[in-house]
Specification:
Elements: H1 5-13, E1 18-23, E2 28-31, H2 41-48, E3 55-58, E4 61-69, E5 72-77, E6 80-86, E7 90-96, H3 102-117
Antiparallel strand pairs: 1-2, 1-7, 3-4, 4-5, 5-6, 6-7
Length: 120
């Protein structure tokens, strides 16, 4: 178990279905069991934070862009939500099955702010 696992566990213990921390290069630092596949993760994350975001593809299904606020984006696919928080060196991704994305923002952003303040 890496030190990053504790942050993922914290998120999933708050009811988030899937959580992961990924380096800016797309490498996995930690992820919950059965975290969905995001092919070309680095490219998808760049698209999510571009000036004209349209969404990202997870397990072959597109999550559409809802809003961008400072260091995070909110996405949605039907009843499922996703929040991606951008750190200095990494990204935190939270996915909630049958959860509105707004329910994911608080917990994900809180851990993101902490890690960003620690230099990550």
């Amino acid at each position: 178990m890496s030190g990053w696992d504790q942050y993922v566990t914290n998120l999933t213990s708050q009811g988030i279905t899937h959580a992961g921390i990924f380096g800016a290069d797309g490498s996995k630092w930690a992820a919950s069991p059965h975290f969905p596949s995001i092919e070309h993760l680095k490219d998808e994350l760049s698209k999510a934070f571009s000036s004209t975001p349209s969404g990202i593809v997870v397990n072959g299904e597109k999550y559409i862009f809802i809003r961008n606020q400072d260091n995070f984006v909110v996405l949605r696919k039907g009843a499922d939500g996703m929040v991606i928080v951008k750190l200095n060196q990494a990204y935190i991704i939270s996915i909630g099955v049958n959860q509105k994305p707004e329910m994911l923002v608080g917990a994900t952003n809180k851990i993101g702010e902490y890690l960003k303040n620690c230099g990550y």
